[in-house]
Amino acid sequence: MISLRFKIVISTLFIGLLVIIGSYLVIQDLQTDIIEKEFREKGFLLANNLALETTNQVLVNDVVELRNSIKELKDSYPDIEYIFVTDSEGIVLAHTFDNGFPKALQNQSRPYNVMKEFVYISDRGTMHEFDASLFKNIGYVHVGLSENSVRAQIQDASQRLLLLAVSSMIFWGIFIYLIGLWLTDPILKLTKGAKRINNGILDQKIVVQSKDELGELASTFNDMASSLDQKIRDLVASKEQTETAQKYLETLFDSIDDGIIVLNADHKIIKMNRSFPNIMNLPREQVLGKSCHELIFKAAPPEKEKECPVSSIQQTKKPIRILHEIYIKGKRKILEINGSLFSDNTGEPEVILVLRDVTQERILEEEIIRRNRELTALNEISRIISETFDLDKILSKTLENLLKLAGMESGEIYLLDEPSGKFTLKIHTGSEENIIPEITPAYIRGEILVSDSIQKIPEFASNRNPGFFYAGIPVKLKDRVSGIITLWGKEPRAFSAREKELFLSIGNQLGVAMENITFYNNIKYLKEFNEEILNNVNLAIHVVDKDFRILAVNDELLKLNKGKLKKEQIINKNLFEVFPFLKEKYFNKEYEYVLNTGELFQTEERTEYENDVIYTSTSKIPIKDENGKVEKIITVMKDVSNQKRLEEELKDSYEELRLTYVKLKELYKIKDNFLSNMSYELRTPLTSIIGYTELMLDENVTSEQRHKLEIILRNSQRLSKLIKGLLDTAIIESKNPQLDMQMLSVYDIINHVAEDMKTLASIKNIPINVEVPQRLMVEGDRDRLMQVFSNLIDNAIKFTIKGSIKITAEEENESVHIKIDDSGIGIPADNLDMIFDRFYQVDSVSPQKEESAGLGLWISKNIVTAHRGKLWAESKNRGSTFHVLLPKRRIQ
């Protein structure tokens, strides 16, 4: 084994060696850099000084003096190998070479090769040439220095430094050896002392004289030896106590009422107390060595043994607490099992289980929970029955709570349908599988019917899958069954007599609730019926008792009060407190008269109420009790204020209306004259503007001028069209339009209009397709019919974004039916009748919305009507179809 002293010495020597070698290399590099820097500075200094000294000689072209100067300088510095001076053209003026200027430097003497320092290899070693320029570059000085002397200096310095490093290594080794002896002596003593402690020799002290950490460590070892010695004595003394405690624990282990078992890694019982065989009702020899799966967790198949609680403890190393149900010789037992993991004295993991028989406690708990659940369900059903008269809500909540009580999955409630005598499905919860819409009375019984097989009940056998468990609960009112509740489950369920009694009670409670709902609905219907009568009578009605307390009012009375009073502000208030003016006007005397005499009282009254005058026709009707005494008074009032007001206003308005009519006739005549004169006055200059604009467009004009001329032409034509529309309006309103009737080809008219419109349609890329037979003829005014089709096709183009326009025609008896179909935006259904009204406009889809007067379709309809024809439109969301029906011959 390598000693600690050896390791310390070797490690420290190695570290010292690395430090010395590193220092040697760093110092050598620094020294080399210093020597080389001094060498270069010397070269540059010589070159620059020589350049200053020889500038005048070169300027005066004193070659002899120049040669003497450079020779003298070379002789003064042994390190200089050569010097030569060149002029600005690179011609050598003087040099110090004994055998002539070398060819190797001829190229370097050129001005373009001059540099501050030039290094090259020659037969005399590495040469450094330092160059300097003369005044204003009239020449150049070249000084060559050999590197040999510098290398000799560096070599000498390195040898001295190496000698110093070797000496340092020797001294360092001696020093480290001595230090190692001093450091490792206490450690060796500590090692020997630790070995003694390990061997059980605890009475010998470790002696270390140093007062540092090693001395403290030796003291700690000594204290530890003393402590261990004392603990060994204590352990020997406590062994007897442990044996005594073990005997006590074993006695306690066997005497405890809970069963305790210890399981090994294979789940087999290796130890148990006396109570466990008693709990399992087995002799002790049949328990020891058995696995927990054989005795306790019998339900777990072999492939799932890893999922058992014991496996969970072994895997998670966490304690568990579970309830487990087993059957021992046919008797049900509920065990509370607590388990945890521990290790035996060999370190092997074992599981301890403590089992307590809690069967009686659990039975009591389950009974309490069941009673609470039943009580909660009954309270919930009672609460919902008392809170609402909504039958569906009551049935739904009742069925939901019954399913919870019975522990079943789905159910239905059937109610008796009086006309058919059958029970029809009212509500369902759970699975939708094979629901029966109705059941026959033969199946219904007055008590609970429970069956463990659906096949035993013919009513349901053909509609339900086999295997369902069934329970039927009657809904009874007195002795009459008015419904049946059916509950379904996939698992068998045994109901006790008490549970059946509970279900019957719920069914009876539901029957009473249904009767209450029927009674409530009847009362509600009568109340709503009476209120509906009161509120729909076009008379103001209020009812007061003999103390003049308002019992009821209808909506018409509230309207009569201009909505200033609300029903809740009036009901149960004194009539004369709500309407104090009645007493002020002595209307209370009328009520007293009716109350005292029991006779009807009728009158027409003028009442000032809330700064408003109200005229009413009033009847006060007495309502008598069985003894003939008046107990209520019904007041019926009819508001005749408007009638009275209209009568007065009618008298004043008649004369005013007559004068207005005379003025309107005069204004209408003036309007017709103005429109006629204005139209004729405007048409002449407009015709000139349109003509001159068209001529100018045929000329050679710029694009900007053409654009402006097209705007003038388009707006002039639009204005001309509006003027023509106004003239046509005047003609149509005169009820005497003049038509130039002749036989016309429908194809020619429509084709001519379509050709005129194609330019406008091409702007929006909308084709116009004409499919009109050439044989079709009608009698009509050519210009007027062309005007009609121009308006219709223009309309189709205007309201079509993309698509096409199709024009078709066919004979229909003695008429020709023309259809103009477009794929535009369509016309809303509620606008179809209004589009032919004068001045009615529909928004255009064109990006540049065009204004129009809204006369085109109105004029077109009147022209067609003048031809004894018909014009109408159809539209279904998208696209429109305009129909023109013209007679072949106009009937006079």
UniProtKB/TrEMBL annotation:
Domain named HAMP is located at 181-233
User: Which residues does the UniProt record annotate as the domain PAS?
Assistant: 245-303
- Gene Ontology BP annotations: osmosensory signaling via phosphorelay pathway; regulation of DNA-templated transcription
The entry's localization annotation reads: Cell membrane
Give start and end of each Histidine kinase domain: 677-890
Q: Keywords assigned by UniProt?
A: ATP-binding, Cell membrane, Coiled coil, Kinase, Membrane, Nucleotide-binding, Phosphoprotein, Transferase, Transmembrane, Transmembrane helix, Two-component regulatory system
The superkingdom of the source organism is Archaea
Q: Which PANTHER family match?
A: SENSOR HISTIDINE KINASE GLRK (PTHR42878:SF7), TWO-COMPONENT HISTIDINE KINASE (PTHR42878)
Identify this protein by name: histidine kinase
Which organism is this entry from? Candidatus Methanoperedens nitratireducens
Q: What is the lineage of its organism?
A: Archaea, Methanobacteriati, Methanobacteriota, Stenosarchaea group, Methanomicrobia
